[in-house]
Design a protein that fits this description.
The protein is an all-alpha fold and about 425 residues long. About 65% of the residues lie in helices and about 5% in strands. It has two domains: about 55-315; about 380-430, no CATH class.
Length: about 425
């Protein structure tokens, strides 16, 4: 939800878990109280109802301060019950071995308090899993026409059960389906939500696993401290002559060894005792998440229909008009066949006409080419013959000119020019 800071007017995106709390504006550091939005089902401009959801609690993690207070109280009560046993082996282990055993007891009972609170949360999830979230009167399938009715039914669930993993997951899935109307997107969304819830559940046991590691470590610390005390008590050289001093040194030695072994023993026993309920609660929570995943996969997804209306309902609505529909299809098929035959006949006639036109064009082209070739041949022959006759006349004139020149040279007594022109028969003569 978007909230405007009253001081700097900055727009803040507030998560539902902040509703009712006082937060600090990251822009101006001014404190403001986040008011939860009023639940409303009024229609938006597009005809879709506007829903604000509800504030969701953390379904996996518990309140650490509350669990610590419970664990501390149980520790105080338990140690108080041990006072009548002081002086016995059991009472001395808890009351006479120093602060290490107190810390081990506090971590143990704190862990048990956390497990008890997680058991209560898990029982709430199991109760919510048996709710009738898909009433039959709203429809056998969920589609765009009735999805808002299913969402409104979830909003009518009692708040103690409404704020649960299964109800929140289904509500978000249906609200996404109302917007997107796509089964594939809803399946991907549910798978993502399943991974997120599983990771959150696994992460909620981190502190308990640290307790399992820290309790025996505290025992080893107590061992080191006890051995240190015992080693310090071994210096009995000065007390060797005094029986009382020697007795006190031996008492310190045995006391240090007692602390060393008892702290380790208590740490190992408490970590072992805490490990069994931890594994049982974690297994039970994983089974609950598996039941929720199975419900979403086997109950929700098969009901979603991303078509505009249910296919069965649509068939029933059109059952009365089925004979008319069949008749219309038959008439349309007959018309289609008639048009197909007509088109086939037109295509065949057009093909024959194109073939005849092509044949005529080919014959005309051959005739025109043959005539042009014959005219070219005749023209070439005439040109060659004319050129041959003109060439013979030219040679004849040259020969007559040479004869005149030779005659003149003969009269002058000079050497005559050879006249070969008379031997030429034409341009193509050899």
């Amino acid at each position: 939800m978007l909230v405007a800071c009253p001081n700097c007017k900055a727009s803040l995106d507030v998560a539902p878990e902040h509703y009712g709390h006082t937060v600090q504006c990251p822009a101006c550091s001014e404190k403001l109280t986040i008011q939860p939005p009023a639940e409303s089902s009024s229609k938006s401009g597009g005809g879709r109802p506007e829903r604000a959801g509800w504030a969701e609690e953390d379904h996996a993690n518990i309140n650490l301060l509350k669990s610590f207070a419970i664990g501390l109280g149980i520790t105080v009560v338990f140690l108080g019950l041990m006072f009548p046993l002081k002086g016995t082996r059991l009472g001395d282990i808890f009351l006479d071995r120093g602060w290490v055993n107190y810390a081990e007891s506090l971590l143990f009972f704190w862990g048990l308090a956390m497990l008890g609170m997680k058991v209560i949360k898990n029982r709430q999830q199991e109760r919510a899993a048996i709710l009738n979230l898909f009433p039959e009167h709203l429809g056998k399938e969920i589609h765009s026409g009735n999805v808002d009715g299913f969402i409104e039914n979830l909003y009518k669930t009692p708040l103690t059960l409404r704020d649960s993993i299964i109800v929140n997951r289904i509500r978000k899935a249906l609200e996404l389906f109302e917007i997107r109307n796509d089964n594939a997107e809803i399946a991907a969304f549910l798978e993502t939500q399943s991974d997120l819830d599983a990771n959150r559940s696994t992460g909620s046991y981190t502190l308990l696993k640290i307790f399992l590691w820290a309790i025996p470590i505290l025992g080893f610390i107590g061992t080191v401290m006890g051995l240190s005390t015992a080693v310090g008590a071994l210096d009995i050289g000065e007390a060797s002559g005094d029986p009382e001093a020697l007795k006190g040194a031996i008492s310190d030695l045995t006391g240090g060894l007692g602390i060393a072994f008892d702290t380790t023993l208590l740490g190992l026993i408490l970590s072992l005792l805490l490990n069994f309920p931890l594994a049982a609660v974690q297994k039970k929570e994983e089974e609950t998440l598996t039941i929720i995943d199975t419900f979403c996969t086997e109950k929700l997804l098969p009901k979603l229909n991303d078509s505009k209306a249910s296919s069965n309902e649509e068939i029933l609505q059109q059952a009365d008009s089925l004979p008319e529909l069949v008749g219309s299809l038959a008439r349309a098929h007959e018309t289609f066949l008639e048009n197909l035959n007509s088109s086939t006949t037109q295509i065949r006639e057009t093909s024959e006409m194109l073939h005849n036109n092509l044949a005529r064009h080919q014959q005309t082209l051959e005739t025109a080419f043959t005539g042009a070739a014959e005219k070219l041949s005749e023209s070439s022959s005439e040109i060659f013959m004319k050129s041959h006759a003109e060439l013979e006349q030219t040679f004849q004139r040259i020969s007559t000119g040479i004869d005149l020149i030779n005659k003149s040279l003969r009269d002058l007594g000079e050497r005559q020019i050879p006249n070969d022109a008379r031997k030429k028969k034409g341009f193509f003569s050899r």
